[in-house]
Structure formats: structure tokens, C-alpha cells
Amino acid sequence: MLILKFTKTENSSLVAHVDTLRAVTYIFRRAKVDVEYSKGFNPHMELGFSAPISLGIESVAEYVSAKAEMQDDILAKLNANCPKGMSFVALFEKKVNLAATLNRAEYILTANGIGNVIEQILAPNYTITYTEKRVEVSKDVSSRIFSAEKIDENSAKVVLACGNSNLRPDRLVLHLMAQNNLTGDYKILKTQMFADDIPADEFLSQE
Amino acid sequence: MTKLTDSVQKPYRYFGGEFNTPNINKPADVRFCMCVADSYEVGMSNLGVRILYYLFNSLDGVVCERCYTPFADYEKYLKDNNLPLASLETQTPLANFDFVGFSIQYEMCYSNIFYMLELAGIPVTTAERGENFPFIVAGGPCSVNLEPMYKYFDFVFVGEGETPWEQIITDYKKLKNTMSKNEFLRHVDENYECIYVPSLHDAVYDGDKVVTAPSKKVWWNIEENLDQMFTPQVQLVPNIELVHNRAVAELFRGCANGCRFCQAGFIYRPVRERSADCAFELCKNLLESTGYDELSLTSLSTSDYSGLMPLLEKLLPYAKEHNVQLNLPSLRLDSFKGDMAMGNRKSSLTFAPEAGTQRLRDVINKNITEENIMSALTDAFNQGYTSVKLYFMLGLPTETMEDVEGIYNLACKIKSLYKWIKKTGKDLRISVSCSTFIPKPFTPFQWCAFADRQSIEQKQRYLAENLRKKGINFSYNDYDGSLLEAILARGGRTVADALYKAYQNGARFDAWSDMFKWEHYQKAFEECGVDIAKIVGAYDLEETLPWDNIDIGVTKKFLQNEYKKAMSAITTPTCNKQCNGCGLNAKGYCKDAHGNVKN
């Protein structure tokens, strides 16, 4: 099984997860990289993705697995067929369930003054509030925060749980901004993923 | 951008970035913004826009971008951030283009045109724009009668655009530095028979009836050879789901059947086919360049395509090898063969008998018999189809309750046929959908009245009650929406002010039944003193019509004869059998049964 690491930035960061699946299928088809199809009533390409990210978050560390033969020029072929904001940056060969294994992600958060207040999220029983389906929810998320550090006044680096036990970075940022009366737009960039403590690229390179 | 994604649904709609976007960063001295006055999802599926978009971008020094109608959430975002409506590709405000062109596929998008212009900060009338602002232009099938919008467009391109547009843009490039906007309008009005500048040609009205149509005779442009015509071999691939996410290959234009209610069947005459070889190449190129796994063969009547079998012989194995699902829309009942759908999933079939009795089908010249319907469906059921959708129209000229009962009877017969073939197992899933007939310009029914509310609602009630008792799904169009469409289709210049007023009252996305509100229009028509009954009522065969200055090649005499034959339920055979003398042959078209190259 091939694992491909790809970016989802600019216009492509505005594409929802379900549409990204389709977009990747079309890229493989255009690049003429043969991927096995399922045998069911509705045949579809056998692809597996790392955990979905929210709309608007840019990422340089998304992963997709494909049942396909190893080819040398596969990255070049795919990259010639990508829409704006998507590109394939690394190739691995390993049998793995990406969504279940890659369970942490590192993000760089940018917002006015966020660097100065980021350490608040390391408090014990740190609880955030957000609205989900028009209902206000409060949740203790401290078990889903692994690290947080200031980069400068307006940016910070955090590692959060993702996948089955997930913490949406946009919810965290909005909560933090509301608590501290920070205003203006904000930006989130996903920089890498981990399998527990091991960086994903290192993990995927292991036999 | 994150604030945007928090407040706007599917923001990708407003920013593009699709694969196969042409190079829009090249140096350009002509900038064209191609607009569709509907959502991204609907507008992106429009074949005409796709063709012109690639055509313009293939020209030296010309860049064409796109813009679609935003929803209320994005309107709010724009206003909150003091931004004007802009193109997708480079986020250039519409006001900064040389041309802003609207492709008008259906009448119900007019309010969205006002909406887009106002969001772009562009005055809606030609007069207010004066020498400033881009040329606001229009084209598409509704160009046969844009009199209701005459004040708002600087010029209207009438007919098919592939060939003339290149010359128009070249002229503009040459003349833009020496001519004022008005001088250029005069130039195109004088030099192009397919261009119409409404502000240069007065029309005289008496109340809501036209007395003298605009003076310029405008010729509906007809492309002569599809194999040689500009045809993009690529298609934009959006990253969000469209109404139709698939490659679309046009097999031919025009339709030989001459159904009397069908505007496309007259304005897109004559039939012009792409050769089967060219069509296959097109399909293959579209699939390879997009990566789509679904292909739709499109035309007005796919099963009438003379090259269909040779094409499918090549296409079916190709589709199988490449995991492509084939779609053949617009099949006619009399030519449907079970094997056309070979190798595809056999789920649902859609057929359009249009009317419930043979008499009424003869009136509308839908030349199919009940026997055709039953034999096609026998084939289909034996092939494994388990679901059928049937399309009909209510309010057709000469229709009586007997014809409406015919719809019910036909649906019941189809249900029994399925039971008889299948013996056991689940019932056929069958749904009947009835739209309301709208008399359209350039059809033999252009003189007919639009049905009154009471009779339509009575017929809808009858079908709803009886079909549901039989377990047949029934859906129909709301009367008010059809009434507006009838007014927009046949109205003249006297409705123009009311349309803008309706927009100011809040009209948007009128084609979307959940957003359409008749009150906006009713109020506007009342305030402006528009006599709706006059516009949607019956017209005298000899009276002047608002669109009389447009020439689609089919003569008025032919349409009048067709009207008279309709009233006596006399049919006219398909053009493939004999020439019925619609007028195109006399103009040099249609010399062969197929191909139809102008001699």
C-alpha cells in the first residue's frame, strides 16, 4: 500500500473533507496512477485518508493511502495534475490505517495577541465552550492538548489530539480569543502529524 | 480566510482554483467576466459558458474570468468587509472588466442579474452607466426575447457564439482606444447581424401590447459545422460537488422532432451532428483531462443521433476499462433500446410522454404512441429497471379533463405492465411529474394563452388524489412560478421597470422554489401598472410580437401553419423523414439529412 503526503493550502483549504476525497480520486485518474477499485455495487477507488480537518485550516501534512503499485515518478505525475493549493510532497510504502494511527497533529495558530495567552490552555481541566448544532457545549479538553508554546506575540505552536479523540483547533482558537477579548481574523496551519510521540514521516518510513 | 469559513457556507464557490483553469495571468488588454445569474453549482454545469470561457482564454491578449450569484451569507460577508462582487480567479471587481457578460439559460434568473450588478457597484441601467463601467452584455437561449430586460443590457448577442465572438473581441481590441463606449455599440450594432443594441432601436407599445417591434432585423447566429467549430477538449474540475459532477460531451445541436411546445427544438435548428469519430475523441479527451468517472452524452434527443451505435461501440469498452459510468439523457421513448444502457447500473429511467392521450400528443406533435411507450418499457423492465419517472405538462393548448385522466390511466397501465412482466417481487417505483406548460417565443404555441390558475390547480388536485391512491409519487410545479416564467418569456419592454422593482422588493433566486416569492412580483406589476392578463393571454396570429425583430431562420409562416395543424391535431413528421419547409432549407441550411453544412 502506498502512502502519500500532500498539502491542502490556499483555495484547497476551502474544500470540505468529503470533497477532498473526490478531488484526490480525480487527481489519481488524471495522472493515470492505477489504484484498485472496490468490487461492490458502486465501485470506488480504494483510498484511505488521515483524519479530516475543518474548513479553512491550511495543511502541509495530509496523508492518503492507496492500493497501488510503487512507481518512481509517481509524485511528479500526481503533481502535474493537482488543483491550486494541493501538491504531493512525500511517498511511503506501509500497510497502515491512517485515520486510526495518526492521532496527533501540530498546528501553528496566528491571531492578534494569541502568543501571549497560549499557555492558558495547559491549565488542568481546561474547558472550552463552542456551539454545535445550535447548542452551546462546554468540554474539558485537557487530555487532548499535548503541548503549547508561544512563537511570538501573535502566533503559537500547539500539538492536539486528532482522529477518534479529536480537538478542533479552530474551536480552541475561538474560545481562547473570546476569553481574552482578542479580535481580528485568525489563521491555522497544520504543520505535521504524529503517531503518538513519533512524527508521522518517521513512523511511515519504519518497516 | 478563517473568518470567511466560519460565516460563509462552501466558500470555495467564490474563489475557484479548479483544475484546468486556463492561464489567466497572461498579459491581456481585454478582460471579460463571464457570469451566470445562479449559484456556482448550477452555473458551472452550463455548457455554453464552458465553451466561451475556453474560447476567450484561447485568444491572444484576452483573459476571461467567471462570477456566479452569491448566497445571502456571502453577500453579508462582502458588505461587512466593504468588498464589491469580484471574479473568482483573480478577485477582480466586476466593475474593472471591459465586458461583463451574462449567459441567460432561463428567464427566472433576471432578478439575480440586478443582484449581482448592485453587489458589484454597477448601475443596472444602460443609461445610468453611460460612458463608464464595463459593457454589460447578454447571450444564451433567452436572447430570443430579452425585451423585458432591454434597459439593462448594452448589447445582446443572439444565437450561438462560437464563431462571431472572436471577431467582436478583436474589433474591441483594435477600437477601444479610439472609440467611446457608445461609438463601439454603434459599431457592433451596424456590423454584426447577430448583435442587438436595444438602446439604439425603439419599440412602440400600446399598453402592454407591442405595436412596432424594434427596427433592426437580428439574425440568430447558427454555427455550421460542429466538427470544425471551437470545442474545448477540457473541462474545469471543481473541488466541490456540482449539480452534475461529470464530463459532458455534446453530440449534436438541434432536434428533428419539432415538438410544438419546445423552444429549443425551433431555435437550435437545423440538426448539426458531430461525427462519431470526433465525438469519441471528445469523450476520451474530456475524461482524460478531468479524471471524471462519469460521462454524459448530451443533446436535445440523444437517441436520434445517427452516430450513436458506432460511438457506443467504441465508448462502452473504453468506459468499462476505465471505470466510467455512462449517462444518456434525453432519450425518446420511440427510439429507446434496452441495450443502449448496457453495462450500466439499471436503476431509474426517465421518459417524457408530455401528454396523457394520443389526441393531445398529436396536438403537441410529440410523435410517440402508447404502443411505443409500452414496448420501450417492456424492454426496460426486462433489462432490470425497477424505477420509472414520467414527465408531463398540464395546461397544454386544447387540453381537457379527459387528457388529464389519460395521465393517470397511462401511469396505472405502466404499473400493471411491470407487475405482469415481473410476476413477483416488489412493485415498480413510479413517479409522475407535471410541469405547467409555458408558451414560449418561436414555437407554434407562442400565440397560445397560459392556463389560468383555477384549471391548473383543479388538474393538479385530481392527479394528486388519484395517483397517490395508487401508490404513485406525484410532483408538480407551483402555479405562481410558472406564471412568472410565462410573463418573462413573452413579455415586452413594458415589464422592464417592474422586474427591477421586484428585485428591490426582495426577489432573488426565483428559479429556486424555496426562495421564490410571487408577492415581490405581484406588488411590482401592480405598482407599474403591468397588465399581466394581456401578456399571458392568447395572441392573435397576425398581431405584432415583441420579438418580431429576431430571425431564427424558421419562418413565422411555418410557425403559423404548425399552430393551425396543432388545433386540428394533425402531426408533422420528423425532419429526418422529409423536409417540412420550416425556412432553413431555403436559407441554404439542411441540405443533407445529417451534417447540414451550409452550401
What does this structure look like?
Chain A has 207 residues and is α+β, with helices and mostly antiparallel strands. Chain A folds into 2 domains: 2-100, Alpha-Beta Plaits (2-Layer Sandwich); 104-199, Alpha-Beta Plaits. Chain A has helices spanning 17-30, 74-79, 98-101, 114-117, 169-179, 200-205; strands at 2-8, 47-49, 58-66, 86-93, 104-110, 127-132, 135-140, 145-152, 155-161, 187-195, 198-199. The longest helix of chain A is centred in the N-terminal third of the chain and has 14 residues, at 17-30. Chain A is elongated, with a radius of gyration of 18 Å. Chain A starts with a strand and ends with a helix. Chain B has 599 residues and is of the alpha/beta class. Chain B has a domain at 2-219: 3-Layer(aba) Sandwich (Rossmann fold). Chain B has 20 helices and 19 strands. Chain B has helices at 2-7, 40-43, 47-58, 72-80, 110-119, 126-129, 164-175, 181-191, 263-267, 276-290, 308-321, 358-363, 370-383, 401-422, 453-469, 479-490, 496-505, 518-528, 532-536, 556-567, and strands spanning 30-36, 62-68, 99-103, 135-139, 155-157, 195-196, 204-206, 209-212, 218-219, 247-250, 252-253, 272-273, 294-298, 325-327, 348-354, 387-394, 429-436, 473-476, 550-551. In chain B, the strands form 6 sheets. Chain B has a 6-stranded mixed sheet with strand order 2-1-3-4-5-6. In chain B, α17 packs across α18. The A-B interface holds A 10-16, 19-20, 22-23, 25-30, 37, 41, 43, 54-57, 81-85, 170, 174, 185-188 and B 1-6, 10-12, 15-19, 21, 237, 239-241, 245, 288-293, 322-323, 345.
